[in-house]
Amino acid sequence: MASTLSWSSSSWLKNFSVNTNGKGTSTSKLSDKEATTLIVAQKKAKKTRKIILKEDVDYLGEKGQLLDVKAGYFRNYLLPMGKATIVTPTLLKEMRMEEERIEAEKKRVKEEAQQLAVLFETVGAFKVKRKGGKGKQIFGSVTSQDLVDIIKAQLQRDVDKRIVSLPEIRETGEYVAELKLHPEVTAHIRLNVYAN
Gene Ontology cellular component (predicted)? Predict the structure, then answer.
């Protein structure tokens, strides 16, 4: 048989002192409902800390992430290893400023890529001259490095050959190449291959 606490026998909970306008204390009675509310309010609080990670932590999060972790884990592992700091208003403000700066930089880079794409697409066709063979055949092929050299000669722009995507070119004719200037911006340029 389980023993239960009888509320009527707990007289200390039923009688409590209330300060009335600074004139002293008076005793008042609590109902069972109010007594229960007092007990629930005394629930033990969880001890967690709001932190910001300074570096990636396995099974926890990535650098700059805002997390709630247990106080002991922070105190005994994250803090001594220098992997996290407690969140402060100053630190939050610095994080927001850094995020805004990064977003502005990403936006600027994307706009530059879009302007460069418009420039490449309005130039017209780049002419590539190759030694010709029988019919439309040319000796060798046109590579991405050839296109990079032509762009540098005509537009005085440095382009990385790794962003150039060319179809296989072994004949004379007109082709379209893609330049991946930004993850969201791709420029299509025309190539006019002819034999001399």
Answer: chloroplast; ribonucleoprotein complex; ribosome
Q: Is 82 left (phi over 0), alpha (psi -120 to 50) or beta?
A: left
Quick one: which H or E segment has residue 15?
strand 15-19
Out of 3.10.450.50, 3.10.180.10, 1.20.58.220, 3.40.5.10, which CATH number does the structure's domain 48-87 have?
3.40.5.10
Per-residue pLDDT of the chain (196 residues; tens, 9 = 90+): 454 444 444 444 445 444 445 555 445 555 555 555 555 555 566 788 899 999 999 999 998 889 999 999 999 999 999 999 999 999 889 888 988 999 999 999 999 999 999 998 888 888 888 888 888 888 888 899 999 999 999 888 898 999 999 999 888 999 999 999 999 999 999 999 988 8
Residues in the chain: 196
Element (H, E) at 180: strand 173-182
CA separation (Å) from 38 to 7, 26, 27, 42? 12, 19, 17, 7
109-195: CATH superfamily: Ribosomal protein L9, C-terminal domain (3.10.430.100)
